[in-house]
Amino acid sequence: MAESVVASNTENEVKENGVENGNVDFAVTTPRECQPEVKVDIESETEIEAVRSELGQDVLRVSKGLFQNEEEDDEDSGTDYLNDEDNRGTHLQRAEREGNAGLPDTFQTNNLLFYERFKAYQDYMLGDCKTSEVRAFTADYLEKIVEPCDWQALWRTEVFDVLVEVVDVDYKDFRAKVDLVLPLQCETRGCELTEEAMKALLEATTHKVPLQELHVVFDESGEFDQTALALEHLRFFYKHIWRKWDEEDEDDDFDYFVRCVEPRLRLYYDILEDRVPAGLVAEYHALLARCSEKFQEFSSLRNGLSSDSDSELDNVSMVEGLRMYEQMEALKRKLRIIENPLLRYVLGYKVNSGQQSCRAKGVRPTGGKVIHVVCATTTVQQLQSLMSDKLCPKYSSQEFELQFHSDPLLAVNACYEGDVVIVCPGHYDVSSSISISDSIEVEGYGLPDEVVIEKRSRGDIFVESTGADVKISNLKFIQHDAIEGILCVRQGKLEMENCVLQCETTGVIVRTSAQLTMNMCDLYGSKGAGVEIYPGSVCSLLGNGIHHCKDGILIKDFADELDVMPKITMVNNVIHNNESYGVILVKPDDAAAGGQPVETSPADEQEEEEKEGGMDEVKPETDTDGNIPVVVIEEECPTPARRSGIPPEYTEGNDVIKQELVATSARKHRLQRLRAKEPGDTQADENLLAQEMFVSIHGNQFRRNGKGSFGTFLY
What we know:
single chain; alpha/beta; Pectin_lyase_fold/virulence
């Protein structure tokens, strides 16, 4: 007799039909009222098995169809490691502790690269926030990243390191509530710390400690990587980027990251990677300390003033407060100059400019003088030639002693006042800077290309001269990685003749009160200026070639009351193929120094235009900061007729230079008058400043300089 069998796709029947063998670990069920009934007439047990098998295949096909796309996406997913236990783990290094205190290791987060910190602050922590919004943005960043509880950290101060466990985080206050991990695990510095004392300390602080003082304990799971990085970014920001006076910045409408964070971050890494002179670093830190001290005094004085008091004491305090405020603003402006890479390049530093690397020895105690002969190896014939060509004709009438050296650095270091160093042909590698502090002569015996001194190691300067009367001749210097320059005349007088200077970073620097006479030399390859001339210096450039640098000659003016114009002589120099200008003058923007704008009328502007003879207008470029660096480009201007027989593109003599200087002042004067219509901009300057510093200019040639022969940079 035929039987009626009702088959349903329940979980049990799916298992009975072998669906489990098809690697399907789920069951598709439908409500009982919606389940279709399938009536089958069964003739034999074989037919029942066939029906069950068919139902199982249908369920398998349906399930594969439903989840086919999901399985394909899983195969191509780039985040499989998040679900794969084998691939999970920390991507940070372990910071192993020194000593035997028994404290656990922490994450290594203090060696992050520039772009890692840059991206974190720009994209995640600060964005485009204003100065007044920095704390709120930072708190929001911490709330998204930092684990709220159940992680261990080292509470690190100047006195102790203690292991604690974080039980709660106050993101807005940048503090964490912690409990002491028992038994006590700590490391102290100069003190004794007991468990009872630590508990009392935590009770006094209501168990809350600053997040900046917490260093996350190393964990290989990777669960606390982001917490460790977030705390490092917070710690670094408030230690190296944030300033106490930033909260009172008047430029609150501007992007804080662009205006403050980026330049300070770049300066930090430039200092870290030895790209800033040691003197400038020392000055920057000294300025920071002075500004912090002045801000503290100003804040204390301001907090002590009464808003409704008219007493004489309060009036005196207000006057004193204004004086402090002006001093603090001057310090802040100097800090911004150093933090700005461009201004740092064109202005340099002054505080340590007269500091000597070593003191002068003076006259030799025995009273004699020495000729230091430098040669790696020599032959009898070479020595005989040296005696006949150099030593006998020049030094036979005086009592000189001979000393031989294999290293020019050792020879210079052994010199006393009046000694002579003669460097024989050869290629000499020196490991450190050459400092000349006494009045000596250093001369190459041969052509400059035959007597080469090369420095490959990193340092502030290659050759430094502080002697009263120093002479260098017939040498070739090759510079590598010298931060400050290939040669610096810090003080005294240096005469350089027939030398070749192959630069890599910066060229020759003439500091305040120093004198340089550079005659028949060839200088090239500087990434900055070929020659940097500071206020108060005396520089004579006679018959030199200065080429393939960023700028040929850079003349600096700090706008200080004590600064005086340098005295410059330029005769028969060839300044060519420089990327920017042949000669560039750095001048302060009068508006930055507190100058008042000058009102002009349309008639005045028309008069200025007529005076300029139709020269194209050059519009200054301003930044969003309060400092307005402006480059005034002096291109082609009317020139007198050239002398016959000399190609016009090769010669620009004294008259042409003077005319360019006049055009510079006229153009600058017009720009200042036009810009003076806006309050706080540049004050007009009636003086022809450029001509005051030049003692003599004639016979110079300017060829193929990228932006022209003469330019002015206003800061």
